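thought: fold this chain, then report.
action: predict
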Amino acid sequence: MPVDVLSDAITAMRAGVPHSSRTRLAAPWGMRFAPSDGAGCHVVLQGSCWLLPPGRDPIPLAPGDVVLLPYGRGHAIADDPATPLIDVVQDENGDWVPAREMPQGTGPVTLMLCGAYRLNRARAHPLLTGLPDVVHLPARIGANPSLRAAVDLLGAELERPGPGSDALIPALLDSLLLYILRAWLHEHAGRAATGWAAALADPALADALHALHRDPARPWTVEELGARAGLSRAAFARRFTKVVGLPPLAYLTWWRMTIAGRLLATTDLPLRVVAERCGYASEFAFAKAFKREFGVSPGRYRSSA
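observation:
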């Protein structure tokens, strides 16, 4: 799988440092997480619990289960669906904390890892917007060993912090997110006829996407991309559009503008350099394309960012 595309999708949406916690809870307990701009994940290390997503039946979680909630729509977790819930909110540092003190239970213990990712949804990559509301990866012997290793490393670091933990924990959280997405894409690659799981599992389309992400400034043509895939221009365009959801050059333009927005918001590079990196020969052509995409000029976008 061309992981570069997956990495680029995460990088395009990342906003700030992810946060995590290792929580030991004795029943009865229940936590309701408010909606947010980010994504959340839970890993059950010991015991069991229930995930209570909005508008869906409760989902039982067993030891080793991993869940990702990519859209920040709010959810709850509890030892039992009937347990009263205590609101959990984000503080000024981005950490999730109970709005009031949680009572100490005396029942069965659940040990969990929880992670929170800050994401910019203003420019959401279609790879991530194609995910279900709940990505549930049940524990299975021998399944997803890399994901299990990332869980073990993060759990150990949270349990026994040491020198460098402030750098290690966000890096391990980023790794955990990528392994979760990679596992989901792998599990759905053979089932989906369209969408990014299907696109990345299709050698012809995956190669084209990898090429576009590796060198977005190149003046790609549909014919050239089709030749790389071993398809005619028309056949490649139909296949790409059906599976990915956008024509090849429309996706390339969207990705170039996404890169441009990130460069304008996070660097002081001259407009000429930004234009070149995004495949535009002149600042005028770039500014025109940028305003058509974002509704404002590059300079105004940079100032507001």
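thought: worth noting. The chain has two domains: 3-188, 202-305.
final: tokens above.
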